[in-house]
Amino acid sequence: MQITSVNVGRAEMIAHGNQSMTTGICKRPVSGSVEVTELGLHGDQIFDSEHHGGLDQAVYAYSADDYEWWASETGRDYPAGLFGENLTIKGLPSDLYVGDRLLIGDVVLEATSARIPCGTLATRMHDRGFGLTFRKAERPGIYFRVLNPGAVSSGDTVTLVEGTACKITVLDLFRFAYETRHDVDQLRRFLDAPVAERVRTKIEATLASL
Predict the structure, then answer these.
(1) What is the pTM of this model?
(2) Which residue in 14, 76, 168, 178 has its CB near the most CB atoms, within 10 A?
């Protein structure tokens, strides 16, 4: 695997229809080396801290191969950073096991959850129905926690180290977000995985309600 683009977002006003907001979702490719800390990429701004960012969702990565899929499906151009990812990676699978790790030089990232589409993404795409389109595609991109900080740049080699602790996938968590019926044993398996804290809270609440 290889990083094809490192993307950082600054404060930007976006609007579509009657929706407008200031957001950091508009990530732009940057050149040179970028520091990665436990809270994400240096200079990257997070505005909706209730749902984004933090230690367990510090870095968002999207597959360059999935961008190619979107382009072939729609005939549109999908530049790096359009989905708000920090790292665009060639060869990154659409689905990893929670706990799988990416090694990029000194940087170690651990997969924690899938990206769930929101109104901000729909506004960014100028399509109110894009959330449903994104859901059906099941190519959500992956959130990571930073186990070891360092620096990354476009062109860096990325090595996958598969985790052994669990067999819960990122797509399992993505589908969980939309399910209306749940299996108690599966939810308990979710909690055995190193999932993002926001996701863990939702799983625990769902389990308590059953």
Answers:
(1) 0.94
(2) 168
Distance between first and last Cα of the chain? 41
- Residue 95: give the domain boundaries: 2-164
Following DSSP, what letter does each residue of 88-154 receive, concatenated? EEET--S--BTT-EEEETTEEEEEEEEPPP-HHHHHHTT-TTHHHHHHHHT---EEEEEEE-EEE-T
pLDDT at 49 over 80: no
* Residues 149-190: tens digit of each pLDDT: 999 999 999 999 998 777 899 999 999 999 999 999 999 999
The two beta strands, 40-41 and 34-37, are antiparallel
The answer to whether residue 116 sits within a structural domain is: yes
| Structural domain contains residue 79 | yes
Domain count of the fold of the chain = 1
Burial zone of 142 (CB within 10 Å; 0-12 exposed, 13-18 middle, 19+ buried): buried
